[in-house]
Design brief:
Layout (H helix, E strand, L loop, with lengths): L2 E5 L3 H4 L7 E5 L11 H7 L6 E3 L9 H11 L4 E3 L2 H7 L13 E3 L3 H8 L3 H6 L1 H12 L2 E4 L4 E4 L4 E4 L11 H13 L6 H26 L2 H16 L6
Parallel strand pairs: 1-2, 3-4, 4-5, 5-6
Antiparallel strand pairs: 6-7, 7-8
Helix pairs in contact: 4-5, 8-9, 9-10
Length: 240
């Protein structure tokens, strides 16, 4: 079961698009951004096994309070992406070391520049070394997106060379976060599980590109191909 946590002000707009998911609206300010309300946040996170935060979140004034509360108080594996990473970049990253459960960060190069404070040129020169260094320092699993995706917890590192040019389209990162939170719904968080999620997303994107071309495919086409890739993996079929 998937639960979408949104500001109350957009509840009516989103509801028609939620056919299989559930929704938990929480209070918002005059700019339609979530506000920190401990009771509402506690209720919204009841009984969930994994959380993805940041996609479409915006830059609300209470984002840092909400993220800090979740990291410090909730024993939930947490994927932080997009605006969640932008929020984290403005915080003291030592909070990651205090997290009660495993944190997975999924930045692209520019987002990694913001959270690591390393210039993007330096990251491009030494992406694996800097990713390992960051993951070890802050006790996180880092998934650094790129033509080769780097997944590391600081001790063990996987290089996922799957994906295609057609995935360079709006929403592809959100699809990856959705795959990861889905997998974490029934697996304990680990470096290998996160790498498997990146692999599943990459191969699904490749099949979408074969069907729709690199010019025409969109993020939802990658979602369409996920079942096909799962069937291929389960049957040990060769994934070219």
């Amino acid at each position: 079961m998937v639960r979408l946590i949104v500001p109350k002000s957009i509840e009516v707009s989103i509801a028609p698009y939620l056919l299989e998911q559930t929704m938990y609206p929480i209070s918002n300010d005059e700019d339609n951004k979530m506000i920190f309300n401990k009771e509402e946040i506690d209720k919204s996170l009841e009984k969930i096994k994994a959380l993805a935060i940041g996609m479409g979140w915006g830059s609300g004034k209470d984002n840092e309070k909400i993220l800090a509360y979740i990291l410090e108080e909730k024993n939930i594996p947490c994927i932080i992406d997009a605006d969640g990473l932008n929020t984290l970049a403005n915080m003291d990253l030592s909070i990651l070391k205090k997290a009660k459960n495993k944190i997975i960060l999924t930045p692209h190069l520019k987002e990694f520049e913001r959270i690591s404070k390393n210039p993007i040129e330096k990251i491009k020169e030494n992406p694996i070394e800097l990713a390992i260094e960051f993951a070890k320092k802050y006790n996180v699993i880092l998934l650094l997106k790129g033509s080769t995706t780097i997944v590391t917890d600081g001790d063990e590192t996987y290089l996922v060379k799957r994906g295609c040019s057609g995935m360079a389209t709006a929403g592809s990162g959100d699809v990856l976060s959705g795959i990861l939170v889905g997998i974490l719904g029934y697996n304990e968080p680990s470096n290998k599980i996160v790498a498997a999620g990146a692999y599943l997303a990459g191969v699904s994107g490749e099949l979408a590109q074969q069907k729709y071309t690199d010019i025409s495919m969109k993020a939802s086409d990658t979602i369409e191909m996920i079942p096909e890739v799962i069937k291929m993996i389960r049957s040990n079929e060769e994934l070219q």
